[in-house]
Amino acid sequence: MHRALRTILTALALFATPALAQDLGIAVGEIAPTGPLETLDGKTVDLSAYLGKTPVVIEFWATWCGSCKQLEPAMRAAMTKHGAQVKFVTVAVSVNQSIERVKGWQKANKLGGELLYDKKGTVSGAYDVPATSYVVVIDKTGKIVYTGVGGTQNLDAAIKKAL
Questions:
Q1: Quick one: which of 129, 135, 101, 134 has its CA closest to 117?
Q2: Tens of pLDDT along 124-153?
């Protein structure tokens, strides 16, 4: 099945069932994959530039994602509380959105951390992203210590696994 269609169908299924941490996507314990992403000004950056120095929180996100909007206050609080110790990277998926739409959203909402665009879906594919609002927490050695999906994740507890 085409990856984008699978992502959309999974997202629809998640609205009907409660989200559970560590049930979907890349396995906890694996080494975090890297891959090319785009900055909002169109430059290519590899995800590896953010890994291996400090713990990293990655959210696979979309401007149209209801669960992402629900998770946003918790994500902002986590950035405020842990921003000195943890790198926050938001990966905008390319499903049903353009870089221009992401730029407009960022201009209006000013999400902290790094906001990058996964134009070709390479990084989303490497993480086997099941839906938007998918969060991956990586420790400073590059090992995945948490994955979860949905708007009500306990980010503080997830981040503590990486500290």
A1: 101
A2: 999 999 999 999 999 999 999 999 999 999
Is-contact 87 58, C-beta < 8 A?
no
Distance between CA 46 and CA 79 in Å, rounded?
A: 22
Q: 109: Cβ–Cβ under 8 A, 6 or more apart, which residues?
A: none
pLDDT 10s digits, 7-54: 443 443 444 333 444 457 999 999 999 999 999 999 999 999 999 999
Closest CA to 52 of 75, 68, 34: 34
* Total number of domains in the chain: 1
- Residue position matching structure tokens 């306990």: 154
Domain extent at residue 14 = 3-160
From residue 145, alpha-carbon distances to 22, 57, 82, 137, 151 in Å are 9, 10, 16, 6, 19
What CATH number does the domain containing 123 carry? 3.40.30.10
Percent of residues in the chain assigned helix, strand, coil, to nearest 5 = 35, 25, 40
Nearest CA to 131 out of 84, 68, 74 is that of 68
Spatial contact of 62 and 72, defined as CB atoms under 8 Å apart: no
